[in-house]
Design brief:
With about 500 residues, the protein is an alpha/beta fold. It has a single domain, classed as Amidase signature (AS) enzymes, CATH 3.90.1300.10. It starts with a helix and ends in a 10-residue tail after the last helix. Strand 7, helix 10 and strand 8 form a beta-alpha-beta unit. The protein is built from 17 helices and eleven strands. It binds glutamine. The site of glutamine has 13 residues, from loops.
């Protein structure tokens, strides 16, 4: 049984198509793996009954020769995606018992293509965090450990449950979301592949909103091809999301393994931070060597406004969050803590329903949007956002096809190690990823090596808008050169 969970998504798909295995068998193997891995706390809600029912339907379709592209493939769903009839918490107490009456477009697309839901994965509360420690349902533990040590490590965040579940072989892939790095940073920490597509590529409809101009749905998987297969099913235009874009969805998997000869890859000098550990620098240089060997042309580029991206993100994202989260007032959704009048009901509900980090973001957001500070903070951050976007447009206009950077400034850290005294320490995790969201571009994190302590390290590729295919091609070249991901040894 455990062997089935170790297959790649693509291999499982082939075995299903040839009817060497059944979807029900696959679902059972994963349900057992999830039950045996509860110590990792990857899932907020397990849905084994639904998984078995969906798998039985998949088997019937496979038998009739009517299989969809993901027929019978068991997946984890970040608990930020609304799933009809299945609790959707956003990692928050305020939505602890919220059961949506509708299905998000992205998950509906996956079910249309035959995928099977194993459950809802844990995350930072409202996707605010970089370590999965802000979840109301407790932290997720990474399946990885430092060599020779048993210190508990974070899986990254906010899509920590999805990333840990994929790395621990609890599902072949998982949905995730990325507002400032929440797909790419946990991918880097867990040795998985994380794709944040172009803003507008996937529908945001039915995904609990954090910062609507930055949020984008995406994928965590065990290799580049699997990620490409999943994104193809998830992406597409949706009339219910006015920001989703009406463009055909390419066959991303077809780009995997294609030559990258003659591609121009930019190395932005501003991403070489002073305090960066030597092993991250080494990894980056190694990436350059691999891509050169694969026939790419490497050029140094400048993205001069990079250093303003993180501070500007931590104004724009909280501003939008403070507005989006105003809806949790105890009247329409989720938790209600009564008071003597409606004002007190709001206050009691929100004080009890939101955790510390979410309250901090709401307060920052409200402050930067308030009369008197709006121009000084919010408007200025928006101007910086435009300049960041322009930096990218300039280098792409000069013929750069993609940009190579590290994905994170370090390997995974220990539980409780960062951010308790100073939240900025945690925010610094996003230094290489937020620029991509600010510019609305696609980004992919691909495992590329291991740290001195034996932990996964990743490189990031940033592409032109709607050119995910080039990213898949280059990421596959890195994957091949680095020897691909090694799975963590099972200790749980
Ligand atoms: N870590 C970043 C934050 O806390 C990004 C989160 C995300 O992408 N959802 O805002």
């Amino acid at each position: 049984m455990t062997e089935l969970t170790g297959l790649s998504l693509a291999a499982a798909r082939d075995a299903l198509a040839k009817r060497h295995i059944s979807a029900v068998e696959l679902a059972k193997a994963h349900i057992a793996a999830i039950e045996a891995a509860r110590a990792l706390n990857c899932f907020v809600t397990e849905t084994p009954d639904r998984a078995l029912a969906m798998a039985a339907q998949s088997d019937a379709r496979l038998k009739r020769g009517e299989a969809g592209p993901l027929e019978g493939i068991p997946l984890g769903i970040k608990d930020l995606y609304c799933t009809r009839g299945v609790k959707t918490t956003a990692g928050s107490r305020v939505l602890e018992n919220f059961v949506p009456a509708y299905e998000s477009t992205v998950t509906a697309n996956l079910w249309r293509d035959g995928a099977v839901m194993l459950g809802k994965t844990n995350l930072d509360e409202f996707a605010m965090g970089s370590s999965n420690e802000t979840s109301h349902f407790g932290p997720v533990l990474s399946p990885w450990r430092r060599r020779g040590a048993n210190v508990k490590l974070v899986p990254g965040g906010s899509s920590g449950g999805s990333a840990a579940a994929v790395a621990a072989r609890l599902c072949y892939g998982a949905t995730a979301t990325d507002t400032g790095g929440s797909i790419r940073q946990p991918a880097a920490f867990t040795g998985t592949v994380g794709v944040k597509p172009t803003y507008g590529r996937c529908s945001r409809w039915g995904i609990v909103a954090f910062a609507s101009s930055l949020d984008q749905a995406g994928v965590l998987a065990r290799n580049v091809r699997d990620a490409a297969l999943l994104l193809r099913s998830m992406a597409g235009h949706d009339p219910k999301d006015a920001t989703s874009v009406d463009r055909p969805v390419p066959d991303y998997a077809a780009a995997v393994g294609t030559s990258i000869k003659g591609k121009t890859i930019g190395i932005p000098k501003e991403y070489r931070l002073d305090a960066m550990p030597a092993e991250i620098d080494r990894l980056w240089n190694e990436g350059v060597v691999w891509l050169k060997a694969a026939g790419a042309r490497i050029v140094e580029i400048s993205l001069p406004h990079t250093r303003y991206a993180l501070p500007a993100y931590y104004i724009v994202a909280p501003a939008e969050a403070s507005s989006n989260l105003a809806r949790y007032d105890g009247v329409r959704y989720g938790l209600r803590v009564p008071g003597k009048d409606v004002t007190e009901l709001y206050e009691n509900t929100r004080a009890a329903g939101f955790g510390k980090e979410v309250r901090r973001r709401i307060m920052i957001g409200t402050y930067v949007l308030s009369a008197g500070y709006y121009d000084a903070y919010y408007v200025r951050a928006q101007k910086i956002r435009t300049l960041i976007k322009r930096d990218f447009e300039t280098v792409f206009a000069q013929g750069v096809d993609a940009i190579l950077t590290p994905a994170t400034p370090s390997a995974a850290f220990g539980l409780g190690e960062k951010g308790s005294a100073d939240p900025v320490e945690m925010y610094l995790n996003d230094v290489f990823t937020v620029t991509v969201n600010m510019a609305g571009l696609p980004g992919i994190a691909v495992p590329a090596g291991v740290s001195s302590e034996g932990l996964p390290l990743a490189l990031q590729l940033i592409g032109r808008a709607f050119d995910e295919e080039t990213l898949f091609a280059i990421a596959a070249a890195i994957e091949q050169a680095s020897g691909g991901m090694k799975l963590p040894e099972r200790w749980w």
